[in-house]
Amino acid sequence: MLLVLLDSAGPRQRYIVRHLLERMLGWPVRFAADLEAYRTHNGPKLHYGEPLVDDDGHVVVPAIELEALKPGMALPPPTLCDGLPVLHGDDPFADSFTLLSLMDELGNVERDAHGRIPSSALHVVRHQVSELALVDRWALRLADRLRARYPDLPAPVRNFRHVLTVDVDNGFRYLGRPLLRQAGAFIRDLLRLRPSDAWERVEVLLGRKRDPFDRYNELAALATTASLHRVIAFLLMRGGAANDHAVPHETRFHQRVHAIRGAVEIGLHPSYHSSELPSITTAERDDLQAITGEMIQLSRQHFLRWRLPDTLRGLAAAGFTEDHSLGFSDRVGFRAGTCTPFPYYDLERDEETGLMLWPFVCMDSALHDRMGVGADGALAHIRPLIDEVRGVGGTFVSTWHDRFLSDRGPWKGWWQVMQRTIEAARP
Fold first, then answer.
1. In which order are the strands placed within the sheet that holds 161-168?
2. Cα 289 to chain centroid, rounded
3. How far apart are CA 372 and CA 93, in angstroms?
4. CA-to-CA distance for 246 and 236, rounded, in angstroms?
């Protein structure tokens, strides 16, 4: 147990101290009731605040005023402290709270064509530190200081692990689509001189060939891979719109979902406009629960469209326990500077919520569609991220899509990229 004295014992201080010391390092924390209790404690202890007269030899983290950190404020550029970029000098708690509270996101007004904050507008990208797990590094450096003073403190409990996630945006490529749409697509393939696509469509519809997006059995098999900590499939439940392409949820789709249920964790992929209308998310979750027969508590926003604080508040209020939307749509890296799941802290209400945010580090569509990286060059971008996460004993979350895993057409070779990623990320 580690006793912590807080000069300012507000919700922000308690949140970030508990996260770094308990969740990230595995050390139970107790907050000192008063100065006398701190002074007379003989075990490991830490003072977060202004140094006391008798702090000599104890571990003191000089604190800045966390309440002064506001959305929209200009964040300081990183400076080097013993070779590691920091924001607020020698205050790992303030630095970590700055990134994990998402204040840079909350105060940002820039938007792209899909209403998302462009990555180029984010502090970690502008200052070229987005490929470092900064929060994890800050926590581990603090652990080194504490263990140097208190050798009996156990080593931090950190275990590298790989969580593989798949966004099922379509369900099927051909099966389950309305007949009129099938006929129009068949003619369009012929007019665009793509006879192989037209013939493949016919073969699938006649039952002579498997739908190329039907990789459900393979996903279920992945869940038995010893090196994977979790496999999660996020299912889109809405179709027939410009940015929502899910097949109608008829019997065949139900069967394929049930084929993976129990092997793969199932989450909701709330549709394109759900970030603006929370009732959409609730209705879509009800539809998915009716298919699976189980509670759905995991979520990742389609197109990574989310609005702070409304989307995350809505998910928490609806009983979701995890959201996996925190990552880049156009690059790889650590959007919140961490590879450790953390509770969403509602900055406007100044309270910790029960919604855990699981940041992902790389996504196939970001590499292929936005960075212009082919299947043969993808591992050169993914391996350094694996090494960074492994180096801090963190959670490597990779994100894939059903169209890429079809291993056909423009996505040829990406199933092999996923397999090589699994191999490279073995514990």
1. 342-346, 351-357, 322-323, 298-299, 265-268, 228-235, 161-168, 395-401, 362-363
2. 23
3. 37
4. 6
Indicate the pairing of strand 322-323 with strand 362-363.
unpaired
Residue 389, token pair as written in the block: 């996460």
The Cα 420–Cα 378 span in angstroms is 10
Q: What is the pLDDT of residue 173?
A: 87
CA distance 49 to 64: 8
CA 27, chain centre distance (Å):
24
How far is the C-alpha of 323 from the C-alpha of 308, rounded, in Å?
13
Q: Which tokens in the block code for residue 17?
A: 């101290």
Whole-angstrom distance, CA of residue 331 vs CA of residue 347: 26
End-to-end, the C-alpha distance of the chain in Å comes to 28
* Lookup: tokens for 111: 């938007």
Give the position of tokens 């998910």. Answer: 315
pTM over 0.85: yes
Alpha-carbon distance 327 to 24, whole Å? 20
Q: Give tens-digit pLDDT for 14-51.
A: 999 999 999 999 999 999 999 999 999 999 999 999 98
Q: At residue 112, what are phi and psi to the nearest 5 degrees? A: -95, -170
Separation between Cα atoms, residue 359 and residue 336, nearest integer Å: 8
In whole angstroms, give the CA distance from residue 111 to residue 311. 16
Question: DSSP strand E in 359-410: where?
Answer: 362-363, 395-401
Backbone φ and ψ of 82, nearest 5°: 55, 40
Judge whether 359 and 338 are in contact, CB under 8 Å. yes
Query: Helix, strand, or coil here: 12?
Result: helix
* Contact partners, residue 2, CB within 8 Å, separation at least 6: 21, 27, 28, 29, 30, 43, 44, 45, 46, 146, 153
3-state SS string for 110-158: CCCCCCCCCHHHCHHHHCCCCCCCHHHHHHHHHHHHHHHHCCCCCCCCC
Q: Is the peptide bond before 309 cis (omega within 30 degrees of 0)?
A: yes
SS3 of residue 199 by DSSP: helix
Residue-wise pLDDT tens digits, 57-95:
789 999 999 999 999 888 999 999 999 999 998 899 999
* Tokens 């400076």, located at residue: 79
Cα–Cα distance for residue pair 403/244, rounded to 1 Å:
14
